[in-house]
Amino acid sequence: MPEKTYSISDLASEFGVTTRTIRFYEEKGLVTPRREGQKRLYNQADRVRIKLILRGKRIGMTLDECVEVIDMYDPEHNNAEQLHSLIARVQDKRARFEQQRRDIDEMLKGLDEVQALCESALAEAGAAN
Amino acid sequence: MPEKTYSISDLASEFGVTTRTIRFYEEKGLVTPRREGQKRLYNQADRVRIKLILRGKRIGMTLDECVEVIDMYDPEHNNAEQLHSLIARVQDKRARFEQQRRDIDEMLKGLDEVQALCESALAEAGAAN
DNA sequence: TTTACCGTTTACGTTAACGTAAACTTGAGC
DNA sequence: GCTCAAGTTTACGTTAACGTAAACGGTAAA
To answer: Of A3, A41, A49, B22, which residue has the fewest beta carbons closer than 10 angstroms?
Structure first.
């Protein structure tokens, strides 16, 4: 069965971005859809790459960093040396993500405190009536 | 006892940024150190704000978003209406941060898989000898 | 056939978050 | 008194990640 394909506006609306954004990612080499005549045709792999890019962006990664991570997924690695270097890069990214998770947890803790203060202030105001 | 203060380069080196960055934050109204003559003097509150800004930046927040969050911490809120609106904003931020945490967890999962593949490939190569 | 979309390329514009450089002041140490 | 490091202001430069506009091609419905 033929693989499912997507038009550029399919993906744009699915992911809530503009077609310009997707073409821009192509300019930068992040996706390489095939063409049907003039029109771009995206396959499942393209779609996944875009999804990964947008996930990266949500946590503040640059497009170049997104590429770095995505490239880790395809095995251009043959020998032991390359495998070790890949593992090292994985560790670097992991450290970064774990730092980010700590940052987010701190942020959430702060929000909890603010909310608790708000609610106790509201309770007090309510009790005053 | 007088509050502890910091020079601009104190904070710059503590946080690993340039003095330009800190002055830029002042231009944008994110910090307002007092002056001793010509020189800027930062107090503990200023220092904490900068710390919060940089934490926000690490998870991809814009400076404006950092201000939004930081502003939630000081109580400019008196009446019940303002308290409810603040709680609503807290919920919005919370949702965003939780999404980010999910994104990070997915990223880490991906890294785990890559590393596992690398290690099993290395084990296989080792066994082949 | 005309209208209405969807798609395309090309190209200039925009915003955030600083970098960088120049020119000047000021207090500390020699 | 001179130097030197650390500070200041002013101002133009830079990069990433698209936005926006113009001008055009294909096709499907009215």
So the answer is: A3
Q: With contacts defined as CB-CB under 8 Å, which chain B residues touch A84?
A: 122
- Domain with residues A1-60, CATH architecture: Orthogonal Bundle (1.10)
CA separation (Å) from B77 to A24, A113, A114, A118, B30? 43, 15, 11, 9, 20
Domain boundaries, chain A: 1-60, 75-129
Greater model confidence, A74 or B118: B118
Residue B126 pLDDT greater than 90, yes or no: no
Contact, B59 vs A100, CB < 8 A? yes
Task: Give the residue on A whose Cα is nearest the Cα of B56.
Answer: A103
Alpha-carbon distances, residue B68 vs A2, A111, B63, B72, B128 (angstroms): 49, 12, 9, 7, 58
CA distance A85 to chain B (A): 10
Model confidence pLDDT, tens digit, residues A10-50: 999 999 999 999 999 999 999 999 999 999 999 999 999 99
- CB contact under 8 Å between B87 and A125, yes or no, is no
Residue of B nearest to A51 (CA): B103
State the CATH class of domain B1-61. mainly alpha
Q: pLDDT digit string (tens) for B26-79?
A: 999 999 999 999 999 999 999 999 999 999 999 999 999 999 999 999 877 778
Cβ-based neighbours of B65, under 8 Å, separated by 6 or more = B56
